[in-house]
Design brief:
This protein has 377 residues and is of the alpha/beta class. The protein has a single domain, classed as TIM Barrel (Alpha-Beta Barrel), CATH 3.20.20.70. Helix content is 43%, strand content 13%. The strands form 4 sheets. The chain has an 8-stranded parallel beta sheet with strand order 6-13-12-11-10-9-8-7. Strands 1-3 form a two-stranded antiparallel sheet. It is globular, with a radius of gyration of 20 Å. Bound molecules: flavin mononucleotide and benzoyl-formic acid. Flavin mononucleotide (FMN) binds next to helix 2.
């Protein structure tokens, strides 16, 4: 519980929001790395739409309610988290700052919100686990086409005590990203994103038995197994029976897929178009959120991501039926300043959310529903 008079505690010596960090990132980091983070697939229609989707709704406040205390904490998968958002899985973070995912995880830990670690991280599952003593650690799985390597990653996640698996299903193959194609850029070329494979005993035994492969040969081996276009509901069903870890499926936009996943026994769904980086012209997640919520019922954990930049965006997503949101690029722009920059972005976002909840007349995020929003078109 935070008193609202604390929220105007603004440090004017640092960028005021993630947009300002974005402009700094554009100046500060390698042009190709910035292009990789910032851009989307194809015409970037979905990328643009992800931001515009939030402009289609306005907020309808209630007045004369006691808003001296506003609580933005929620319970997700049985654990209390201090704000209704998570750090989305973002791979290759050392292309922004040497501390990469470790800095982001530490900032998450400080904020008391879950960190979702990408498969293609530059720090291992075990290293990130150690950076999150007080906040949930979710491991995002790119289900490798090599079953044994896949099993090994899942076993490591279980053994190190992660709180959940987040399985991304909107990447049977990589979206066509023209900015990266023009730059001939793939972030793994910098050495980023390989830690979970290089530290994996099964991967090493199978692909590097003599320990003599060059880094470039190792990169090729990883890229060969990273994507799994043959993945189906059947494989997921088998995993559901084999692991006790909660499973959250990321990258669902169709309500019937959502229902099928729920029936299969997964523990939550993230409605997402991968930040506009995969299927070009994929529908904006907010446009399908209410339908997906109606399909899975009121108490099934449902998250959404793509284009969340402000507290008011979080309010709209929650009012339309999400339990929480994920943020991707905003914290990655903050990462130009390492852990400090990520902390700054998170604290600004929570302040913005806190202020706007109070102005909306809401003292607890659980009160949000469609009566607080209006279609602006
Ligand atoms: C640079 C970058 C790398 C990403 N890497 C992954 C990843 O490894 N796994 C994954 O499931 N999603 C990945 N995503 C997608 C994010 O998890 C998330 O869905 C998206 O960034 C949300 O949109 P936003 O950036 O507008 O907040 C990545 C996104 C970006 C921008
Ligand atoms: O960039 C991405 O969005 C992403 O998810 C990814 C994952 C693995 C390899 C390349 C890109």
């Amino acid at each position: 519980m935070q008193q609202i008079n604390e929220v105007n505690d603004i440090d004017l010596s640092v960028p005021i929001n993630s947009e300002t960090y974005r402009e700094l990132a554009r100046e500060k980091i390698d042009k190709k790395a910035f292009g990789y983070i910032d851009s989307g697939s194809g015409s970037e229609w979905s990328l643009v739409e992800n931001i515009k989707q939030y402009h289609r709704y306005s907020l309808v406040p209630r007045v004369l309610r006691d808003v001296t205390a506003v609580d933005q904490s929620i319970t997700l998968l049985g654990r209390e988290i201090r704000a209704p958002y998570l750090l989305a899985p973002v791979g290759f973070q050392t292309i922004v700052h040497d501390d990469g995912e470790r800095a982001s995880a530490q900032a998450s830990n400080h904020a008391g919100i879950p960190f979702v670690q990408s498969t293609v991280s530059s720090y291992t599952i075990e290293e990130i686990r150690a950076a999150l003593p007080d906040a949930p650690h979710y491991f995002q799985l790119y289900w490798p086409s090599d079953v044994e390597v896949c099993d090994s990653l899942i076993k490591r996640a279980e053994a190190s005590g992660v709180d959940a698996l987040v399985i991304t299903v909107d990447t049977p193959l990589l979206g066509r990203r023209e900015v990266d194609l023009a730059h001939a850029y793939f972030p793994m070329e910098t050495g980023a994103g390989m830690a979970n494979f290089l530290s994996d005993p099964v991967f090493q035994a199978k692909y590097n038995p003599t320990g003599t492969l060059t880094e470039s040969a190792l990169k090729q081996a990883i890229q060969k197994i990273l994507f799994h276009p043959g993945l189906t509901f059947q494989a997921l069903k088998k995993l559901r029976d084999e692991t006790a870890l909660p499973i959250i499926i990321k990258g669902v936009l169709n309500k019937d897929d959502a229902k099928e996943l729920q029936a299969l026994g997964v523990d939550g769904i993230i409605v997402s178009n991968h930040g506009g980086r995969q299927l070009d012209s994929a529908v904006a997640p907010l446009d399908v959120l209410a339908d997906v919520r109606a399909a899975v019922g009121p108490s099934f954990p449902l998250l959404v991501d793509g284009g969340v930049r402000r507290g008011s965006d979080i309010i709209k997503a929650l009012a339309l039926g999400a339990d929480a949101v994920l943020i991707g690029r905003p914290y990655i722009y903050g990462l130009i300043d390492g852990e400090r920059g990520v902390r700054q972005v998170l604290s600004q976002l929570s302040s913005d959310l806190q202020t706007n909840l109070a102005l909306l007349g809401v003292t607890d995020v659980s009160q949000l529903d469609q009566s607080y929003i209006k279609n602006a078109e």
